[in-house]
Task: structure prediction
Amino acid sequence: MRIDILTILPELLKGPLDHSIIKRARDKGLVEVVMHNIRNYSKNKHRQVDDYAFGGGAGMVMCIEPVDLLIGNLKSERHYDQIIYLTPDGEKYNQKFANYLSTLDNIIILCGHYKGVDQRIRDHLVTLEISIGDYVLTGGELAASIIADSVIRLLPGVISDETSALTDSFQDNLLAPPVYSRPAEYKGWKVPEILLSGNTAEIDKWRLEQAIEKTRKRRPDLLEG
Ligand code: ADE
Result:
C-alpha cells in the first residue's frame, strides 16, 4: 500500500509515523508513506498557499492551485483509489472505515488548515471526506497520522501476532476484554482465577462475557447494530 500525505507541515507528521510498529512496517516495505509539502507547488514568491475568502469573513482559505498541481502530479504517476480530505464535517471515522482503507492500494490524504480549503478542491478533486471525531483540530496532520496508524497496523505482516488485530476492540462491535500479566498477585490485587486455570474454552467464554459486559456499560450503541 502507498499513502501520500499532502500537508503544509510535514515535520508534524514525522514523529508519529517514524517509530515502533509503523516504522518497522515502512522499513520492511509493507507500506510506503510519502509526505508532500503543498508549499512546494505554490507559484507565489512567498510560497503562500492561502488567501482571503471571497465574500469576506474571518480566516484564510487554502487555495486550489497548489493542491491541484500536486494531486495532478501524483495522479499522472499512478491510480489512486481514494483522495481523502480531513475535515471535522466529514464522515465519522471508525474501525470499519480503517478496515476498508487497508484494502486499498494507493490513497492520498489532504490535510486542511486555516478556515478550510477552497470548496472546488472538495467538489472536483477529493473523493472522500473524513472526520476523526466531533472536535476541531488546528489542522489535519494529527488526524492523518491517526488514520495512517490505524490502517497500517491492519496490513498483512505488520503485526506479528496474526490474530492480534482481529481481536481489537471494535472488530466485532465489542470492546476488548481486560488483560493481565505477571505477577498473578500484586499488593493483594489478584488476577481473575479463571485466567490461571489453563482451560482455554472457559477462558474464551470469560473473555467474551467480559467484552459484552464492558460494551453494555460503556458503549451500548455498539450492541444495537
Ligand atoms: N481537521 C480539523 N479537525 C478535524 C477532525 N476532527 N477530523 C479530521 N480533520 C480535522
Summary: The chain is about 35% helix and 20% strand.
